[in-house]
Amino acid sequence: MSPRIHGLAAFRAWLQSRPQAADAVLAVALVLMGFLQLYIEDVPPELKRYYGVSDATHVALIIAITMSITFRQRYPMTVLCFIVVGEIWISVEHYPATIPDVVAFLLATYSVAAHRGLAHSALGGLLALVSFNTMLVMMPIEVGIITFMMDNALVMGVWVLGRNLRLRRAYFAELEDRAARLERARGTDARAARVEERSRIARELHDVVAHHVSVMTVQAGAARRILDRNPGSAREAMTTIEEVGRTALSEMRRIVGVLRTDRDPERAGGELAPQPGLGDLGELLDHVRETGLSVQLWIEGEARTPSPGVDVAAFRLIQEALTNTLKHAGPQARAWVRLYYTDDDLTVEIEDDGRGTATIIAENGDNPGHGLVGMYERVALYGGELRIGPRVGGGFGVRARFPLEA
After folding, report:
1. Phi-psi category of 4—alpha, beta or left, where left has phi over 0 and alpha has psi -120 to 50?
2. How many helices (H) and strands (E) does the chain have?
3. Quick one: 165 exposed, middle or buried, by C-beta within 10 A (0-12, 13-18, 19+)?
4. 340 within domain boundaries
5. Domain stop point among 103, 118, 143
6. pLDDT single digits (tens) 292-348
7. Are 334 and 353 in contact (CB under 8 A)?
8. Residue 189 confidence (pLDDT)
9. For the chain, how many structural domains are there in total?
10. Phi and psi for 370 in degrees, rounded to 5?
11. Contact 374, 320 (CB under 8 A)
12. Ranges for the Histidine kinase/HSP90-like ATPase domain (predicted)?
């Protein structure tokens, strides 16, 4: 690109960023054109007797009218009124019309329509049309009907052009605003989805880690106490710890694998496994019983298959409740798990007769642990109801009702 072309592009960009300066440059160019027109005296000789001779007043009016378009975008109605007064003055003095004042009048009409609302633009258009016809009537020569109609069509066309461009700008501005709103809404939805996903993953990790680590801790303590006097039982406890640890690692690998699915689907795909559900409840209770906690299971009503989400949520709820029992109920505690099936609902109850209530309150105070918060979130997610609190006669109880249909 040559330096000259580059300079013109920079000057054009400068004018686009400063519209008032661009209008000032246009006004100066029109004034110079008006001087050239007055210099060559393009009024036909046979019409000179109808028009006055251009003098300093005429030149001053042309300059004032033309330079006023510098402010046409900021004060369009004021500029139009000023130009109308100047044009009528020229008509009263019978000065010949020049290109600068005619162009300035049309630009002012366009500016009112393009930069003001409907009421102001309509008033400006009416003012321009009335004043223009007044100037035609005041002309010293008779104007033909064709010329009259064409001149009026020109004024109205300029006004309509300005109005259409204003509506077009408003339409594009609305599109841009709508796109910005949609972008913000999409960002908000994405953030909400990320927060929800992080919460879900946190619940999964807590359930997996808390339950299995609790089982491993109880088994390790039992193995330590009986290691010297009963090596065989200690060996069985250590075997249970190994199995539970492998299970915990497998579930944690599955959860973390979900996080890697979008980034590395081939690696993550082989590590995925079905989510646990109520069908795995027997295995869960066996693990808990191996820690020494007595757990009984009752199922009432006709067992029905819940939705996949409810199936996982109910299993995790039982897992978390039994984990809390292992942690807080004490060594002599017993636990009961009851499932009540109806036509529409599944009610899950987990109770123990230990000292869990006092222990939980003493450790957490008024701030519930992550496990209890996770319980509420899981049950609420599927439209269920949850009650947690002390049990009559001692111990702690968890009762949740899930709709069988998602």
Report:
1. alpha
2. 13, 5
3. middle
4. yes
5. 143
6. 788 999 999 888 888 888 888 888 889 888 888 888 777 778 899 999 999 888 999
7. yes
8. 78
9. 2
10. -65, -30
11. yes
12. 309-406
- Does residue 215 lie in a domain region? no
Contact, 309 vs 363, CB < 8 A? no
Task: Answer yes or no: is 69 within a domain.
Answer: yes
Where residue 288 sits, what CATH number does that domain have?
3.30.565.10
Largest CA distance in the chain: 136
Considering 143, 162, 190, which residue would you say is the last residue of a domain?
143
Strands (E) located in 163-238: none
Handedness of CA 95, 97, 100, 105 (dihedral sign): positive
- Which is nearest to 337 in space by CA: 263, 284, 403? 284
CB 329 within 8 A of CB 335: yes
Domain span at 99: 3-143
Q: Exposed, middle or buried by CB within 10 Å (0-12, 13-18, 19+), for 131?
A: buried
What is d(CA 204, CA 255) in angstroms, rounded to the nearest whole number? 8
Query: Which candidate, 30, 95, 92, places its Cα nearest to that of 64?
Result: 30
Sequence-separated (6 or more) residues with CB below 8 Å from residue 301: 339, 340, 341, 342
Q: What is the mean pLDDT of residues 387-403?
A: 88
For residue 219, is it within any domain?
no
